[in-house]
Amino acid sequence: MLRTFVAVADLGSFTAAAAAEGYTQSAVSRQIAALEDVCGVELFARGARGVRPTPAGESLLPHARGLLDRLADTARALDGLRRLDTGTLRLGAFPTANAALVPRALARFRARHPGVRPLLREGMTERLLPMLEGGELDIAVVSTHKHPSIAADELVTLADDALLVALPSTHRLAGHDRVSLADLADEPWIVADNPEAIATMRARCESAGFVPQTPLRAAEWISKLGLVAEGFGVALVPALAATAMARDGVVLRGVAPDQPRRTVYAAMGRHARRSPAVTAFLTDLRDVAEELRPRPPA
């Protein structure tokens, strides 16, 4: 309606405006009449040689142009979001996902969509899920490391991630391909200093027949592996991040007979299910997770 009003004002004719906008003349007349009813005033003075805006029409004209300009800007911005030329991707991930999975997926995403700005928040699953639910994040990489299941609306499985045991390279079992947890019953275990991590470690070890000693508590993987390298204990390390955690003095071995595992998911916020940026980044996450998946020996 406003677009038709501006066309009539610019062209000075209902007939010319109808041709320019692809309407019939009667349709233009109806739109202008409806707008005048809304405004409660006459917007055009009709004459034999065409029409011209009344003072009220002249007053409305700059506002109508401004609204149409803002509408065009909004349409261009939305089109840019759809085409991933611009916008923001708000991402959350747990620490070991940020070792290799997330950086590689972000690198692929950036190569294809350099105009989209990623914002990353790191945290454990129990912190990320409320942020996702509250609309602070669009997508989060979470895991069942401390929880048997995850309560979230939209979950996409990325990996079935094995947990490896990190041993000093001089350890008596370092030459084995797989190590039993029971064989490490007398070792100090290095674990994060929070109740959930300690409880998870204890449950895994108790299923192997012993209660773990956890005198050394460290949250960061670089700290854990530094302590392992110097012979202060052993630790469980996710296979998903094993390549990024390689360091001198440490070997990573499979666990026998029952390899502990966790499931890694991409969880999406309800508000972001149809987001083009989330959809595109999810594809990159799945592809990189597949590349990082350990392959059986030939």
Your description of this structure?
There is one protein chain. The chain has 298 residues and is α/β, with parallel strands linked by helices. It folds into three domains: 2-82, Arc Repressor Mutant, subunit A, CATH 1.10.10.10; 88-159 and 262-292, Periplasmic binding protein-like II (D-Maltodextrin-Binding Protein, domain 2), CATH 3.40.190.10; 160-261, Periplasmic binding protein-like II (D-Maltodextrin-Binding Protein, domain 2, 3-Layer(aba) Sandwich). Helices cover 41% and strands 24% of the residues. Strand 1 and strand 2 form a beta hairpin. Helix 1 (2-11) crosses helix 2 (14-21) and helix 2 (14-21) packs across helix 3 (25-39). The longest helix is centred in the N-terminal third of the chain and has 28 residues, at 55-82.
Count of the domains: 3
CATH class identity of the largest domain: Alpha Beta
Number of DSSP E strands: 12
User: Which structural category do the helix and sheet elements fall into?
Assistant: alpha/beta
Portion of residues within helices: 40-55%
What's the story with the biggest beta sheet? Answer: 8 strands, mixed
Topology as H/E string? HHHEEHEHEHEEEEHEHEEEH
Mean pLDDT: 88
CATH superfamily of the largest domain: Periplasmic binding protein-like II
Specify Rg, calculated over alpha carbons: 31 Å
Shape: rod-shaped
**Strand fraction band?**
15-25%
The CATH architecture term of the largest domain is 3-Layer(aba) Sandwich
Query: Total number of helical segments?
Result: 9
Q: Residue ranges: pLDDT <50 for 5 or more in a row?
A: none
